[in-house]
Prior knowledge:
Mean pLDDT: 75
Number of domains: 5
Strand content: over 45%
Structural class: mainly beta
Largest sheet: 7 strands, antiparallel
Distance between the termini: 95 Å
Shape: elongated
Low-confidence stretches: 1-82, 113-123, 169-182, 448-461, 526-539
Radius of gyration: 37 Å
Oligomer: single chain
Strand order of the largest sheet: 4-3-2-1-6-10-9
Number of strands: 56
Amino acid sequence: MKKLKIVLVSFLVLVIAGFAQAATIHSQAVRAKTIAEDNSSNTLAEDEGDGSFIMDDTAPFVVTSNPLPGAMNVPLEVDFSVTFSEPMNEASVFNSLFKLENLNTGSTLENVSLQNLVDWGTVSASFNASGDVLSMTSTTYLEPNTTYRITVIEPITATDLDGNVLYTDETQFLFTTIGDPLAATSVTQATGPLDLEVTDPMGRTITKSISAIPSASYIELDFDDDGNLDDRVVIPRAMMGIYTIKVIPTWSTGTYTLVVSYGDELITLADNLPIQTRTYSFFFPQRMMEQGWNLISVPVQLPNYTIVAAFQSIISNCSTVWSYETTDTGGEWKRYVRNAPAFLSNFWAIQSGRGYWVRMADTAVLTLDGDQVAAYPPDLLKPGWVLAGYNDLEAKRIENIPLPLNCNAVWTYNIVDGGWKRYIVGGSDNDLEWMKPGEGYWMNIGGAAPPAPVWLHVASTDRPGIPYTIWGSVEIDGERVTGKGRNGAAAPTVLLKVDDKVRSNYQLGTVARYGDFYVLDVPETDKSPQPPFQRGESFGSAQVELYVQVEDTLIKAGPVPPGKAGEIMRLDLSARIPPKVSVLYQNYPNPFNPDTWIPYQLKEDAHVVIRIYTATGQLVRTLNLGHKPAGFYTNKDSAAYWDGRNEEGEDVSSGIYFYIIQAGDLAATRKMAIVK
């Protein structure tokens, strides 16, 4: 009794977003018990040898497909990898017949063979050199959001080289296609006696015989049911920009129709025209937005530039949008934030020609349709780092592009393309070769022609990094303060210090829409990692602290927790105004038994030591409290505590004791009593 293992993996070519789950089927003899398992060896279904084996629609085949407009259904590629225990008769495994049922409509294709899958599409098969592993691939065209069943109506039968039957089985597979609207897919379809030649914005071409466009597919099927083969080109994850389509007649007479589609759009370029060689062009306005950070631009003129309108196709998955405005003194980040208080946003409209950082909670397709942008905004190209767009609708090699005057370097970021890529003018090891529509770019603009070694300076270290934002209320001495201040005094100011240097500040009430809250951006520091801002990555180990300025008094409010680039963090502040003088207060309770608290206050930071003596001057105990910031230490949570024991841990006897404090310029003595 021979053993074999069959692994069936269903996945979409051309338009797939991911792989489907695989199943493994073990069979040992004719009509033997059959078990289906998932990749973790969990049993999904099994038969008892009666030949009817059905897997339910939860596993193993959940096929993700992209719904295309109208009748443009999707290609499905099914791979069969069969491993035998010894060399096989290569022709024997093609003797089976299949039935394909559409359970949504009830339509059926019967007697579909592995040897002749014209109704399904195409099939290819090959054995390895040893003759014991068969790999078969069939491509069919299925509708999205539809349940199908494949039934073996003549058993899969495999024989060895001597004609002995090694395996036979009758199996049914149930699977469901699931619509996935998240693929930016360009489709070109022509009906009529012609071939297609489609060229993408980078100049890469696909024809019936060659394909230089990654994952693109050329399909010939009878799409309009007239008995003649038609042509379709499907380009998954298509790039934004101008595509050209050349129609090449295969007959000298007849008519043709040419349409292109993306998302829910169906555009007719030619309708029932006489057949002849022609070239068309159309702008594909979509761009894939990946989960996480995307550096993008708007290469077209839009009817409405508000972020909500311009990014309508992705706004539900968009968490933040960041803009960088170069100034004469450096630059300023501006942010648009969703799912947070509205006052935290400080810009609400984008601009053609500029670049933007967009953070996505999930993948989505951005659609930007309009006429080409003529020029960069006049205030964009200032000396320094500029976040710019690319205004051409055709991708071009960067060495063929007239960069802005005195541009020293160009950087871009795309997680799918491997992260950061750079082009340094006059530099080496450049890996940015193309500039593309819809991509954003950091450009370093110098005030004059750069010296030869300029690429060493702009290679990696000084691009502006996206900050994170902190905001919250301010409480002083237990009282919430507002932009009007307290008791007629000026409103307090919140200061942000990085490594003890003031980097930014905000006085309550300065910006009306902030109300009584402060809002500060925590900037990238020299100790912070450079982008690409990987998910979960935090800023570096720089000491970031907040202070509150109340009139002429500066109060330390505490450290700022590490944050992620673009994160919005609420941090309410509570501080106490330090005393004007340092004082040692009477202990409480007094007299006491067995322990007591010693309160004090400091007008400035100091190292605090309290020593306890007997009435005869013998040192009993030293309380080394360490460095203390200015403030009040008067309640039981903050005052010095003495448990009534000496340095050896022994209880002291009743009597009079003296305690002396030394804290900066404060030196004071008080008396206390133990009564037992």
